[in-house]
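In this section we walk through a basic example: taking a raw amino acid sequence and producing a predicted 3D structure, encoded as discrete structure tokens. The instruction is simple. Fold the sequence below.
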Amino acid sequence: RYSRDGVAVWVQPPSPGGPAVHRIKCRLDVSDVPAETVYDVLHDIEYRRKWDLNVIDTHDIAQLAINADVGYYAWKCPKPLKNRDVVTLRSWQVLDNCYMIINFSVKHPQYPPRKDLVRAVSVLAGYLVHPTGPTSCTLTYLAQVDPKGSLPKWVVNKSSQYLAPRMLKKLHKACVKYPSWKQQHDVGMKPWLYPEQNKLPTMAVADLALQRAASLENIDESSLLEVKDETGDHSSSEN
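The resulting token sequence is shown next.
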């Protein structure tokens, strides 16, 4: 465990000889944003396209239940790694004033792996937002992810020590700005709170299948060296 920029991080690398699953837990204490606002930001896909600069493509595909859907997310990885994407089943719930979102990878018949991206696997990932006061909360992020590649050590270290904390700090800034942004963008549209607003096509869970990492191609990128972008800063991903 260590802390960086106010974010506490726990990391468990893959076990030698075992599945290539990277495990990470991050916790951020937020002093100036209520829990419900953080929850809204985690859900609002239109706003994510604004503040998450590493998004290549993200959209909801279909509704599975009033509190579950299936969606697509593709993101930029640190150069010179190949970019990744995932298709996930996501569910959410508000219980005892705590806000929970979890997801895991699934196969969708209309979203097979793409040749220009590496299909990663979310074994299990999620957010827990716990209020600590009227305008404060704690945000915890957990992820068990198989990136489907033999990654160089610098990527693993950078992702856990720098990129994950930076991502949560950017999320925090986005949360602070969200109320004013939302006032100008469909202020009352929050289908994650009001299911009757959801206009996605419906889909049966039986039409999906669990995405197993063993069925996907493994990409060996272990020998790749880190590069810098044109500004002199190391290129990065913040997903």
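Looking at the output, two observations stand out. The first strand starts at residue 2 and ends at 4. The chain has three helices and 13 strands. In the next section we compare this with other chains.
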